Amino acid sequence: MPPELLAIGEPMLEFSELPSEDDGRNIYLQGYGGDSSNAAVAAARQGARVGYITAIGQDPPGEAFLALWQREGIDTAAVKRDPCHPTAVYFITHAAGGHRFFYLRKDSAAAHFGPGDLPRETIGAAKMLLASGISLGISASATDAVFAAIEIARRRGVRVAIDTNYRPALWPPARAAPVIHAAIAEADIALPGQDDATALTGLTEPDAILEFYLRLGPSIVVLKRGKDGAILATENRRVTLPAPAVATLDATGAGDVFAGAFLARLLQSDSPREAARYATAAAALSTTGYGAVAPIPRPEAVRAALAIAGGAPPA
Asked: Where are any strands of DSSP class E within the chain?
């Protein structure tokens, strides 16, 4: 069967710093990152049929990603192998102020992906398309590819979800905001992060942020607030969803896990409130290990956390 959820963007091989008693040497755990790839894995682990649209290098990191996606049951038919450009890499370090990132993504294969590389029939056969501010921000050709994918999706009745995922290292807010918000104006679902939204809009109050994104056009807006959970908004409703208390080790990719889990549960006919509550728990659980992908929970762990909190969504 064709994928029901398609994610588009840039995967990045991850090296996450681990605690070490040797002050003269850093130890890194190799993993997988890239916001849309993280979300794709999260959705697949929750039972959705997922496909990924990207380009990777003909290099060991690219091979590692193909192996990951195949293990996770993610359709890779729309993954382009680029013989001339590398798969991106990044490093996570940890300090008192939280985790920090160092990227080696310049001229990556995904940054050279363009509208001509899109799997048009595959997009048209899906139920939902997910893109993000990173998908839009890595290059001009990637921006064009995302907007072309959105146009195909809308023409074929495929729902569109946009996660803001704003990264200042890619572009300043004055340039990012019009592009990201133009994509959200074409979307059915907006998934802004609290810090992203403040950087892109100048707003700080959750209600004002939710109102801003609803006015752009999506029928569902979920404001992701990290350890404070999330707020779901529709035209007539606001629902605050607290995050379960967990022993957080590394919050890398938690917002991506929320996006993937939320969309997966919507595709499994949850109400937006049920899906957002499930996704809030999944995102919290993903912070209890190191790296973006390894700690992504499976449904049994999410349902157990929800049961402890008081009631779980349907299987």
From this structure: 5-8, 12-18, 27-33, 50-57, 79-82, 88-95, 98-104, 128-132, 159-163, 189-191, 220-224, 230-234, 237-241
